[in-house]
Protein backbone atom coordinates (compact mmCIF):
# COMPACT_ATOMS: atom_id res chain seq x y z
CA UNK A 1 0.00 0.00 0.00
CA UNK A 2 2.88 2.39 0.79
CA UNK A 3 4.34 1.80 -2.66
CA UNK A 4 1.07 2.76 -4.31
CA UNK A 5 0.78 5.89 -2.17
CA UNK A 6 4.40 6.79 -2.98
CA UNK A 7 3.82 6.26 -6.68
CA UNK A 8 0.69 8.44 -6.63
CA UNK A 9 2.54 11.20 -4.75
CA UNK A 10 5.45 11.08 -7.22
CA UNK A 11 3.03 11.17 -10.16
CA UNK A 12 1.16 14.19 -8.78
CA UNK A 13 4.41 16.08 -8.12
CA UNK A 14 5.74 15.26 -11.59
CA UNK A 15 2.47 16.24 -13.27
CA UNK A 16 2.32 19.56 -11.44
CA UNK A 17 6.00 20.29 -12.25
CA UNK A 18 5.29 19.75 -15.94
CA UNK A 19 3.07 22.82 -15.90
CA UNK A 20 5.05 24.88 -13.40
CA UNK A 21 6.47 28.01 -14.91
CA UNK A 22 8.82 30.62 -13.51
CA UNK A 23 8.42 32.69 -10.38
CA UNK A 24 6.36 35.56 -11.80
CA UNK A 25 2.75 35.38 -10.58
CA UNK A 26 -0.07 35.34 -13.12
CA UNK A 27 -3.80 35.68 -12.97
CA UNK A 28 -4.88 32.02 -12.94
CA UNK A 29 -7.97 33.01 -14.95
CA UNK A 30 -5.97 34.75 -17.70
CA UNK A 31 -6.30 33.49 -21.26
CA UNK A 32 -4.20 33.93 -24.38
CA UNK A 33 -5.79 33.10 -27.73
CA UNK A 34 -5.77 33.69 -31.48
CA UNK A 35 -8.17 36.46 -32.51
CA UNK A 36 -8.28 35.82 -36.25
CA UNK A 37 -7.31 32.17 -36.71
CA UNK A 38 -9.14 28.96 -35.91
CA UNK A 39 -8.06 25.34 -35.78
CA UNK A 40 -8.39 23.80 -39.24
CA UNK A 41 -8.50 27.13 -41.10
CA UNK A 42 -6.97 27.46 -44.58
CA UNK A 43 -4.98 30.66 -45.17
CA UNK A 44 -2.45 32.14 -47.58
CA UNK A 45 1.06 33.35 -46.83
CA UNK A 46 2.07 35.70 -45.39
CA UNK A 47 -0.17 34.70 -42.48
CA UNK A 48 -1.50 37.53 -40.32
CA UNK A 49 -1.69 36.42 -36.69
CA UNK A 50 -3.49 38.53 -34.09
CA UNK A 51 -2.89 37.75 -30.41
CA UNK A 52 -5.62 38.06 -27.79
CA UNK A 53 -5.16 38.27 -24.02
CA UNK A 54 -7.78 38.41 -21.23
CA UNK A 55 -7.13 38.88 -17.53
CA UNK A 56 -3.62 40.34 -17.82
CA UNK A 57 -1.87 43.15 -19.66
CA UNK A 58 0.81 43.30 -22.33
CA UNK A 59 4.16 44.95 -21.55
CA UNK A 60 7.48 44.86 -23.41
CA UNK A 61 10.19 42.43 -22.32
CA UNK A 62 12.24 43.85 -19.48
CA UNK A 63 9.23 45.66 -17.99
CA UNK A 64 8.57 44.39 -14.49
CA UNK A 65 4.93 45.24 -13.88
CA UNK A 66 2.51 42.97 -12.05
CA UNK A 67 0.06 40.91 -14.09
CA UNK A 68 1.73 41.65 -17.44
CA UNK A 69 3.73 39.72 -20.00
CA UNK A 70 4.54 39.59 -23.69
CA UNK A 71 3.67 37.14 -26.44
CA UNK A 72 5.66 34.27 -27.90
CA UNK A 73 4.47 32.34 -30.95
CA UNK A 74 5.39 28.65 -31.16
CA UNK A 75 5.45 27.43 -34.77
CA UNK A 76 5.60 23.77 -35.82
CA UNK A 77 6.75 22.33 -32.52
CA UNK A 78 5.40 20.24 -29.67
CA UNK A 79 2.91 21.93 -27.33
CA UNK A 80 4.35 24.10 -24.56
CA UNK A 81 6.24 22.07 -21.95
CA UNK A 82 6.45 19.01 -24.19
CA UNK A 83 8.97 17.65 -26.65
CA UNK A 84 12.68 18.26 -26.90
CA UNK A 85 12.58 21.87 -25.61
CA UNK A 86 9.82 21.42 -23.03
CA UNK A 87 11.77 21.17 -19.79
CA UNK A 88 14.19 23.89 -20.90
CA UNK A 89 11.35 26.34 -21.60
CA UNK A 90 10.05 25.81 -18.09
CA UNK A 91 13.39 26.18 -16.34
CA UNK A 92 15.37 28.64 -18.46
CA UNK A 93 12.87 30.59 -20.52
CA UNK A 94 11.63 30.44 -24.05
CA UNK A 95 14.39 30.13 -26.67
CA UNK A 96 14.46 32.46 -29.68
CA UNK A 97 14.59 30.58 -32.98
CA UNK A 98 12.42 29.81 -36.01
CA UNK A 99 10.03 27.75 -33.86
CA UNK A 100 9.83 30.22 -30.94
CA UNK A 101 9.15 33.77 -32.13
CA UNK A 102 9.42 36.52 -29.50
CA UNK A 103 7.34 39.68 -29.43
CA UNK A 104 9.30 41.45 -26.71
CA UNK A 105 8.24 44.87 -27.94
CA UNK A 106 4.73 44.20 -26.70
CA UNK A 107 3.38 43.50 -30.18
CA UNK A 108 -0.11 42.00 -30.43
CA UNK A 109 0.00 40.91 -34.06
CA UNK A 110 2.40 39.86 -36.79
CA UNK A 111 2.69 38.52 -40.32
CA UNK A 112 4.74 35.38 -40.86
CA UNK A 113 5.83 33.68 -44.07
CA UNK A 114 4.98 29.99 -44.05
CA UNK A 115 5.37 27.51 -46.92
CA UNK A 116 2.36 25.66 -48.30
CA UNK A 117 1.19 22.83 -46.08
CA UNK A 118 0.02 22.26 -42.52
CA UNK A 119 1.48 24.20 -39.61
CA UNK A 120 0.85 24.25 -35.86
CA UNK A 121 0.68 27.46 -33.85
CA UNK A 122 0.51 28.14 -30.11
CA UNK A 123 0.75 31.34 -28.08
CA UNK A 124 2.66 31.46 -24.79
CA UNK A 125 2.81 34.50 -22.52
CA UNK A 126 6.23 35.22 -21.04
CA UNK A 127 7.26 37.47 -18.17
CA UNK A 128 9.78 40.33 -18.40
CA UNK A 129 12.61 37.80 -18.86
CA UNK A 130 10.89 35.50 -21.42
CA UNK A 131 10.05 32.90 -18.77
CA UNK A 132 6.51 31.49 -18.57
CA UNK A 133 4.59 32.71 -15.53
CA UNK A 134 4.22 30.60 -12.36
CA UNK A 135 0.85 29.56 -13.78
CA UNK A 136 1.71 29.36 -17.50
CA UNK A 137 -0.67 31.26 -19.77
CA UNK A 138 -0.83 29.29 -23.04
CA UNK A 139 -3.29 28.94 -25.89
CA UNK A 140 -4.57 25.77 -27.42
CA UNK A 141 -2.42 24.44 -30.26
CA UNK A 142 -4.11 25.10 -33.59
CA UNK A 143 -3.34 23.63 -37.00
CA UNK A 144 -3.67 25.80 -40.08
CA UNK A 145 -3.17 24.95 -43.74
CA UNK A 146 -1.32 27.38 -45.99
CA UNK A 147 -2.30 27.22 -49.67
From TrEMBL:
Ranges of residues in domain DUF4399: 49-147
Swiss-Prot/TrEMBL keywords: Signal
Keyword Signal: yes
Signal peptide start-end: 1-20
Domain of life according to the entry: Bacteria
Pfam families found in the cross-reference section: DUF4399
UniProt name for this protein: DUF4399 domain-containing protein
Lineage per the UniProt record: Bacteria, Pseudomonadati, Pseudomonadota, Alphaproteobacteria, Rhodobacterales
